[in-house]
Structures are given as structure tokens and as C-alpha cells.
Amino acid sequence: MLEKALKGSRGYWIWIAFLLAVAAIGCFCYLQQLDYGLGITGMSRDVSWGLYIAQFTFLVGVAASAVMLVMPYYLHDYKAFGKITVMGEFLAVAAVIMCVLFIFVDLGQPSRVMNVLLHPSPTSILFWDMIVLSGYLIINMVTGWVVLSCTKKEIPPPGWVKPIIYISIPWAISIHTVTAFIYAGLPGRTFWLTAIMAPRFLASAFASGPALLIIFCLILKRFGRFDAGEKAIQALSRIVAYALAISIFFVLVELFTAFYSQIPEHTRHFQYLFAGLEGRHNLVPWMWTSAVLAFVALTMLLIPSIRRKEGWLAIACAFVFVSLWIEKGLGLVIPGFIPSPLETITEYFPTGTEVGITLGVWAVGLIILTLFYQIFVAVRSDIDGDSNRSGICERN
Amino acid sequence: MTTNRRDFLKIAGASALTLMTPAILRPSWAKEKMITPVSSLTAKRWAMAIDAAKCPPDCTDCITACHAVHNVPNFDNPKDEVKWIWTEPFAAAFPGEKHRYLANSLQQLRLPVFCNHCANPPCVRVCPTKATFQRRDGIIMMDYHRCIGCRLCMAACPYGARSMNYRDPRPFIAKINPDFPTRTKGVVEKCNFCEERLAKGMIPACVGACKQKALVFGDVENSRSDIWLLLDKRFNLRRRAHLGTAPQIYYIL
Amino acid sequence: MKNKKWGLIILGLGIFVVGVTFPIWYGTIKSTPAPVLSLDTPVINSMQNKKCVEDTAFMRANHMKMLNDWRDESVREGRRTYTAKDGQTFEKSLTGTCIQCHTNKEQFCDRCHNYVGAKPTCFSCHIVPREVKK
Q: What's the complex ipTM?
């Protein structure tokens, strides 16, 4: 099936070439970082995690969102998702690979990364994160590939793949819960020390991931000769709407606890985010943009007449994705460090090299995703093309 | 052809797993007997008491001594800064305790702050490689050989005691002490309670450098030690004690 | 199986075999002399009985593992004293024991390491006093 990725239109190859160029620039920037050290980024003694870990946190959520296709179809027989579960699984693979790459580029001593496996530390959540992410990667690679090759051969998938698919459902929840636990168990960081961290992560994951999937479905419909079906896309958009509403609600309850209790340890971080603290307000425009986009997107998704128009739906989903990317990336990782445990405010701004490496990793992920989706579309158009030709009604 | 490829992959996977097995089932070789040289200092739990009222204003003797002995670099910018010990005003060291009517003596205080060598350390809990670990005598150690530079310990430390080497530190060390290694870029470092000096029977560099004897170092679980007797007599506070980290630096206020 | 491309296949195989055995035959054409290690340091010259921690054959084969063991035992377990096969005790320290005698890293350590292409990262942290004083 891999050979199907080698056949494409001019637009396809231009897109791949563009991504390869961005990845090459990222590679060059990474070599600079290896030479100079992580000081080439904007990270400091006070803000010791930045853009890389922010991307990692966000992308674990996108990876987990595959469960929003798998669960309705395999557990509840929601036939409309039948054709696109593979899309979700491939998105999970690309997202997990990006997560692993972001962690790798964030390490000060990347050549020692195997120490995590050579000297396992079960008390460390990062250790468990490595395990569950690797497991999730393997699960989705196997299920996505097997199901797609069986679709290609028009035979039902083998029996052994079903238990793996069922396991992927709680496993998806676990990867994002474990990632939330990295933050939620640190006693010194009052911004993150909240039980709602894991539910917040899951809610924003289930909004941003399916939103991205809807955008991909619409792109494939326009450029890729593959139609996921209006029923599937509308069901996904309803999932996004609900998850977004819950995600916004979770942020609002966080704000309530902080500002009604008036405990400075809690309020100061939110003050920095939304109003600025002691004249420092780097993130304020970002957070308000995220808030406005979230509410606008929610309104658009809740109004059926807007949601049903694919143009508006695409815009709404883009708003959701950007809003949650800001909120979960910059708006979660950075303010954990501001103010510092000693009450100082050190702001963070990514450097050019840092952005270059980040874009390079995104490009690598998008290359993998493009190749997978090209194979998927080729397989599906063979199937759908065949059944159209022989006049058999397509079973949905 | 498809069947052959599948079989090949199965065989390759099985071979890889078989080759990995000896590493996983590595037998633990017999350990040599522990010989503690007679000269080294030992304790049940090392701790330090700081009588900050004794610190002269703007005195940095302890900082100079520590950073010189341990080859701590001076990057001269707050972004890349590496520091093992430094001073903070009372309000920063004890963030919950500051208020408008604080005694003037407390407002003027600059307290030395450094790693608290907690009895219940969150940094050790989160380290994915056990590069930072707790010794039996209470010292929180750093194994710079194993550290992968993930900085989870820096996020976990409630006291901001740890520094990351964001750059190669060697060019920024004014005078290298050949008796102690430097670190390399990409690892996290912090105060180590001078464990290398304790092993040779010497007290920590900061304690030795303090002319006012404001730093009292000793075994807090030994009721005959100086530190125990001092803490028994004077009111003392620990930083952010409500977090349950059980820090072992006691501030006499 | 009559294949018109046999000539190209043989040529490709030939290039592959030549390439993959490069390390084996290149040494016979262009020989780099084996490294000669210099023990000419003030400390070694002043020693009556010029003995290392262990004998030369052992050190040549095992100093890498020995240093790794020293690293873990002294840092992680606090066991800082090494008892050699002949009963003499040493402190487990690269700078404090080995480099005290072998002060000429460039004429000693580096010569073999460069020859075999080993790049130990020890010296990015562990100090060679002569290099530091420069």
C-alpha cells in the first residue's frame, strides 16, 4: 500500500516539497541548537519550559482525539464513522510522532534519552508518559494499517485487531491523563496544582482534534476525491461543539476558584494571562484572542444553519484549533512559571531558531500525515470507484 | 509476496526481542563491601540552620566560596543564570508571609537561599532517570552523567533552587578549581551540600567561609549536634513548609 | 531466468561489496601507524615503581568499563575507594587519580581515542589541570 503515496497530483508534490523545505530548515536550526545549547531558545532559569513542551502538550491531545471516532463506531456501531476511523488513527500516529520529536528537541542531553528506559523510575510521570505514548503509537499504526489494508482487499479485518481497537479507547484517555499528571502533581506550581487539569486536557483535546479532522475531511473532499459523508462531518462538528463548551466551562470554573477565593497564589497567574502583572503583559493579547475565537467558534457551531455550511464550518473549526492551541500551549505551560516560586516575573518569548525547529517538527508530522492520507484516499477511491462502476449501492 | 514480508517482519521482531533479553535480565553482580573512610563526615540527616540576623548587609562570602569551589559559571545574564546559592529578600523567600507591617529588621534581611535537601523531595519523585536521587544521609544528589536535561525537576522544585546549563559553562568560569569537575551544557545543577567535601571530612564551603558563623551545619537527627541544640532554642521557619516537602534548611528569625 | 539486466546487477553488487568492505581493505592501502602513547610526565618520571592502578593489559582492555563503574559507585553509592588487584587503594576519580599521573592527555588519552575514533564525553566536565591552566 505504501506505493500509493508515491503517486500524486502536482499540487500534492508541491505540498510535499514545501514541507520538506521547512523540515530541512528545522533540521539546520536544530544543529545550531545542538551546538550552542538550549540557550538558543527563549527559555530561562525561571521559565524552563517553552514552545516545545507547549506543542507536545497540545499534540498529545490531538493524538488522543482519535478515540472520538473509534469509540462511536466500534463500541456503539455508529456506522457514519466507518469510513473515517482510519483517518483518526493516522492522525494519532502523526501527532504522537510529533510529540516524541518535540520532547526530543527539548532535551538538554538528547543522546542520553535511552536512560529513561535503562534506568526506569516508576515514580516519574515522564517515564509512564514515554510508555503510554509508545504503546499508543504502536496501537494506532497497527490498527490503522491493518484496517485500511483489509478495506483495500474488501475483506473484514482479522479478529485479533478488534481487542487492540478496544484497548485504544481507554489508552487514548490515559495518554492525555498521564500528560496532565506531569503538571498536576507538582506541589510548587500553584497554577497547575488543580484536579481539573486532566479533565481540562481531555475536553480541549476532544474539541481540537476532531476540529482538525473536520478540516482534513473538507480538504480531502475538495482536493482528494474523498467524501467522508455529511452525516459523519456533522456528527464530528457536534462533538467539537460539546467538547468546546465543556472546555470553556472548565476554564471558567478555574477562574471562579481563583478569583472568588482571592488567594494570591492562584489569582496572580490568571492576572498575568488576562491583564498583565506589574507591567508585564506578553501573553495578554494572545489569551484574549483565544477567548474571543473560542466563543465565536462555539456560537458558530451551535447554530445549525451556520454549522451545516461547509465554508463556515471550516472557519469555525480553524478558530477552535487556533484558540485551543493558544490556550493549551502558551496559555498553560508558560503561566505555570510566571510568577516564579520566588514571586519574580520573567517573561518568555520564543527565538527565531526555536520557531524554526518547531515549524520543522510540524512539517515532519504533516509529511507523515500527508503520505498516510494519500494512501487512504487512493485506497478509498479504488473501493468507491469499483462499487460505483459495478452499480452496487455504497453501504454506509 | 505479502505473506513472506509478514513472516520476515515477525522473525525480525522476535530476533530483536531475543537479542534485547540479556540486557533486561542482567544479573546483579555481587557488591563490594562499603568502606567508609574514617575521615568522612556522616549523619542521619544533614541539615543547615541560617541565623540571617548575623549576615552583614551586602555580604556574599558564602556565595563566592561555593561558586568558586564548585566551578559555577557566571553568564552575566538572568536568562542563562546558573546559581547554587544566592540571597533573596524575606518576602521572596517566604512569599506567604509578607505584609505591610513587617518588622523593619525582616524587611532589610537578605536571606541565603539554596537547595533545601528536602526529606520528601518532589524533584526526586519526578526525575525520569533517577539522575537526581536521595542519599541515605538526606542529601539530594545530582548525577550529571545521567541527566538528560528534561528540566522536570526544575518545574517540580517549589523553591526555584535548580539551574539549567543552557550553554556550555566552561568559558564563563572565571577561575576553574581543578579539584572539582565543571558541568556540561544540557544538564541541571544545584547545591550538593558539599558532599565531596563531607567525604573528606571538611564542612561545606559556605559554612566555612561565613565569618559571622551564621550558617550552622550538622545532623539534625542527632540531639547532641550544634544544629539540633540551636533549633531547640530559637524560633525557626522553613520555606513553604505546608507543601509537605520537609525542607532541611531552617531559618532562624 | 534470463535477465537482460544481469550486467548491471553484477556491477551494482560489486560496488556494494567494495563499499561495505571498505574498512577492511582501506587499512592495507593507506596505513596509519599505531599510536605511540607517551608516559613522559613529571609525576610518572618521578615515580620509583611506575605502576598504574592496574596492569597495562587490563587497563587497555577495561579502563572504559572501570571508569564507568567508578562513576556509578562513587557518585551514586558514595563508595569512593578502589582496591586494586594488588591491594593498593585509590580514590575513584578520573581527575583525582588517573590524570594526576597522566597529565599529558593529548599525548596519552587522545592518541588512542583519535586513532580508533572514540569520542568520550568525560572531558567536557572532568578537568585536565594542564588544559585548564592555559
A: 0.90
